[in-house]
# Entry
Amino acid sequence: MTDHFAVLGNPIKHSLSPFIHQQFAQQHSHELEYEKIEAPVDEFKATVEKLYEQGYSGLNVTLPYKLEAHALAESLSERAMLAGAVNTLIRTDQGWYGDNTDGIGLISDLEAVLGDTLNSMHILILGAGGSVQGILPALLEQQPASIHIANRTAAKAEQLINQYDDENLSASGLDFKFPQMYDLLINATAASLDGEAPALAHTPLISSACYDLFYAAKPTEFMQWGKQLYGPKVKSSDGLGMLVRQAAASYELWTETYISDELIDSIQAELRQKLTR
Ligand code: ATR
# Structure
């Protein structure tokens, strides 16, 4: 019997999720169909309910619906509760169970890039929007030495960290004079969408890696900025690996099938070829 899955978003035309999940299924001889569905803005809930009635086994949810998916799920994982957002819905007899694999996708990709765990690292994040809110619980769970969040609108970064009672979390504007060396710099601003690196008044010292949540066919502006500033000793990566790894984590939840690093790497290489911009 064929299992049915889908990714919902708006827009959704360019989603790579169907390709990724078909690769997982092919490798494990699973019979599944994975579609992309553009849910109209005011019909997300109705669409999700209809797919439940039609017997869909699982859904991925992307922009702009992660908060709505969180609100409509009948039950939630702890990490989805903490993130306040859902990217994976799993069918249960009692309705949809909401989970969030974005954080774990990022962590496993960061570990692959760094060749190390985040434990005891000093992390600097640029941006304080929805994606940072979504990944922050997973980052904190790794018990880094500190996380500093710098955002164009400083108040938004302050607001975000105030949701946590954690003395290793701090916040500022992008004009901050960074007082210390960081192991890892994560760009989570939407500046990459405009082909720009976020403008910092003072350059932070970075020792291990620059990671852009955004991805593209070529190294992003942020990655190029990092390479130029820090040289080849500091690794740089975009978020394509995170995309494949959050998908792998969803697939594992739906099918209880382990997706190997080798498969993740080969899918990532294929995707890189498919990206046109
Ligand atoms: P996402 O879901 O991708 O996080 P978002 O919630 O709209 O999207 O957040 C976008 C983030 O990028 C915000 O932190 C935003 O800063 P503000 O809070 O000041 O708006 C940041 N951002 C957007 N364009 C930027 C730019 N050109 N330079 C620096 N930061 C930018």
